[in-house]
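We emphasize that the prediction below concerns an isolated chain of 503 residues; any contacts that depend on oligomerization or on bound cofactors are therefore not represented. The input was used exactly as deposited, without trimming of termini.
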Amino acid sequence: MAKFDRTSPHEPTRAIIDIGSNTVRLVIYGGPIRAPEVLHNEKITARLGKGVAETGMLAERAMAAALSSLARYHTLLRLERIGQVDVVATAAVRDAGNGPEFLRAVQDLGLEPRLLSGEEEAITSAHGVMGAFPGARGVVGDLGGGSLELVDVDAPSCRHGISMPLGSLNLPAMRANGERAFAQRINKAVKKAAWQAAPGSALYLVGGSLRAFARYAIHATDWPIDDPHGFEIAPEEAFKIARGLARKKPDTMLPLVGVANARLASLPDTGALLAILIRTLQPGRLIFSSWGLREGILWQSMPPALQAQDPLVAGATAFAAEYSVSAATAGMVADWIGAAVKMACAAENEQTDHGIRLAAIMLCLASTKVEPNLRGDLARDWALRKRWIGADARARVALAAAMGANTGSLGLSPELTALISPAQLREAHAVGLATRLCRRFSSCTLEGLSGSSLTAERGLLLLCVRPAIAALVNEGVERDLKALAAHLALKAEVRVNVPAEAV
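Result of the prediction step, given as a token string:
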């Protein structure tokens, strides 16, 4: 079983301060290095880029607000004794005539800011997407307050990163002369950058304005998972929603859960830009990412061995450890139930990723450590609502299905089951039912597992048990064995002998 370097999810280990064109943000991270947990996240809307767009200079009032918040952040980090701090500044400071003066003021606070070039900003955001979506291939588009970055990704590499002055703060003025002039200006900027995507590529979208669009689209399409990270939508549907938003006036936007009023008011501009990007880039699918620039900084600092780890397993390992469930125990359970799980989708020869199965087992085992009255909502809250890096909608549904089966329920809404293939759903249910059998029979102990085996042969699901632990088989175990066998269209049988695997 692979080891995953981690600390307690509640112990702060590293911080990033992002001096952006719209906001100045502090994020403190803890937990596993490969899938860090956000422990503290605060921002101030300084709108540094507004003055740059109007005069080419950072406005005095905006700088004062930013420096005040940075002084607070520096004090918080000192009190928390967090030594590993990255401070980065992007488009607004980069483009401002008085940017160097502002950076010197930041240094006077005791911070060490790093000014990113446009290409560095694009590549760093792309690295964040690569960290969140292992094997990502396509285009990353990061919309900030002062700029739009585009970069080709073909994990583990990325190339041709560009930055264009098309940030959300610039869009209202750019749209003032009408939609045709706006579209021409966007297309001209892309053409000037000599940048072109291969039609049909995946388009990974990053940035607060685009995540707000994702939340709007989730609501508009009745998508059954409310986390915008990993939300995927067809370009045609996204284009239709974007065009509809572009026609709305900011003051007519209705409140939307999870979207601040300032983001809500900027959605028509975001929709107008996104519609043009979809038409210009011709992507095959749109995927929204909560990981971008800040997480790209984390990714870049990871050694290759950590980058290669499965972020879903790393996150689930840290999460389950809080309930005294280890990845080693889950690995033993996965081996013990392996034959039954393989039977679940043998006809279609379609299996889910091993990491998804391992994460599902850890969540199933952890859920048994929670007060029984609280277990009913865990499949929804843990599998569908908690942010799992490395898990797409299919993986989330698989986790929920396994957790439900672990409690004896095979029911999921049609909206959720539509996101996963029948074979994968059947396998997820088998994982949950088999894990339920395993924990009831052996309590997932080493002696219980090594002294027994679960196999499928000639129409039978066989639980073979050493005589020394035969007393573990009771009515509840037999009931769980029959339920799993019925799910696999097999008959259940218990044999008390020495399993061949245990000799």
